[in-house]
Amino acid sequence: MYDKINPPTTGTKITFKNGEPIVPDNPIIPFIRGDGTGIDIWPATQKVLDAAVAKAYKGKRQISWFKVYAGDESCDLYGTYQYLPQDTLTAIKEYGIAIKGPLTTPVGGGIRSLNVALRQIFDLYACVRPCRYYAGTPSPHKNPEKLDVIVYRENTEDIYLGIEWKQGSEIGDRLIKILNEELIPATPEHGKKQIPLDSGIGIKPISKTGSQRLVRRAMKHALLLPKAKQQVTLVHKGNIMKYTEGAFRDWGYELVTSEFRAECVTERESWILSNKEKNPDISAEANAREVDPGYDSLTPERKAQIVQEVESVLNTIWETHGNGQWKDKIMVNDRIADSIFQQIQTRPDEYSILATMNLNGDYLSDAAAAIVGGLGMGPGANIGDVCAIFEATHGTAPKHAGLDRINPGSVILSGVMMLEFMGWQEAADLVKKGLGDAIANSQVTYDLARLLEPPVEPLKCSEFADAIIQHFG
Q1: 81 is catalytic
Q2: What's the CA gap between 288 and 310, in Å, rounded?
């Protein structure tokens, strides 16, 4: 099956059923060391994960690591431009769960991004990025501890699908001509808009299937959280892009109010229910006026729609959600993308799970990570129905490679996510405790040490791993 690698002689495959992993006590897990600083941060990560599993399960569970290759290290073994060899793809498909360090974006070879390629090849549609604060981590914010969010970013659609044409290319020019001369004029709402002839052009597909399967995973995650954190916010720019981002919002609401009807309430539904709870005799029109403060200035048609919405909510869910029952449900709301950027800074404790499309999620997860200490403290997972890859969220930082100084926190915390995904919560909790206590005691690598006041002597990458293990307790 393999050309240049061999799987471990001991261990068992992880399989998937209904989108969830079935994990044996001795799973084989492929790992990609990563380029640049991967040479430092992966050994530190493996040491911490192995120590946590050993301490938590006293030898009853153990990971059999399987080294596979991607990026520059792969080219060294497989040849020029062999950034993502078939051996690696075969191993990940066979064993189901993998973890990797940062990878170089190829200069040649026809692959725009190895990370994006892996997501698309294995249909890893949910990019999951938790952002929480560990006490003692330097932050530019006064109260970073108030932010505790999980970004669920759609991973396979939007502009990241990479369908675009260069300015001046034959196909690009043909497409612009068809749009300008045929399709735009045939769509009255576009008026006399025209695409400049010297444009590059890209396609932004957002599908109902892709949107709803992401929101479904976000909702399932919300059910596992404490009641106070059971909230899912649909992030979009639907006020401008009505048929892509606006559709994402609409499809999200459709999904949650059908598949999760008993477990959730939407924000607008909660307003309608609350209005009736405060005033049992309130009319549908008066309730509509409370729900939409601009009601009196709306057209008769729009007024009728809101009144109908009020009546529908009360007729369908009052028995199951009324009289305060909705307060124990998952709250589902939506926010405009640019608004949520400032709200996670000014009102971070109002949000829990943010479900978003690809590009918005890319920006938002990095912005949230900055609040809690930067990408060095930002883990990530790419999850599909039959495969999951956990990864560092930062770049390769080649100037620091081999110096044993970079922060391994991102990969270590991605390992925590992997352990939690596997159901090995006891080991995951040990790592979180060890890392949190090390940081609280100012035992940190240079990136954090230089920001502390007063600055402290930094630990090496390997020493930080040792400090985490020492704080397991």
Answers
A1: no
A2: 6
pLDDT for 245: 96
Gap between the Cα atoms of 465 and 44, Å rounded: 5
H-helix or E-strand spanning residue 329: none
What is the DSSP code string of 266-301?
A: EHHHHHHHHHHHH-TT--HHHHHHHH-TTGGGS-HH
Burial (0-12, 13-18, 19+ Cβ within 10 Å), 124 = buried
CB neighbours of residue 59 within 10 Å: 8
pLDDT tier for residue 377 given thresholds of 50, 70 and 90: confident
Give Cα separations from 186 to 176, 194, 316, 351, 421 (angstroms).
Answer: 14, 12, 40, 42, 49
CA proximity to 261, closest of 208, 334, 317: 317
Query: Rounded distance, CA 264 to CA 250, Å?
Result: 16
More confident residue, 306 or 455: 306
Catalytic site residue from 87, 133, 152, 237: 237
3, 338, 349, 363: which one is catalytic? 338
On whether the CB atoms of residues 8 and 67 are closer than 8 A, the answer is: no
Considering 160, 253, 351, 446, which one is annotated as catalytic? 160
- Decide: 83 and 114 in contact? Cβ < 8 Å: yes
Both tokens of 224, joined, read 């596992």
Is 338 annotated as catalytic?
yes
Q: What DSSP string describes 68-106?
A: E--THHHHHHH-TT-SS-HHHHHHHHHH-EEEE---PPP
Q: What is the pLDDT of residues 159-201, one digit of tens each?
A: 888 899 999 999 999 999 999 999 999 999 999 999 999 999 9
The residue type of 19 is G
What type of residue is 319? E
Catalytic residue among 35, 87, 292, 362: 362
Classify residue 107 by burial, with Cβ atoms within 10 Å: 0-12, 13-18, 19+.
Answer: exposed
On whether the CB atoms of residues 259 and 271 are closer than 8 A, the answer is: no
| Cβ atoms 219, 234 nearer than 8 A | no
Residue with tokens 């006064």: 142
**Helix, strand or coil for residue 23?**
coil
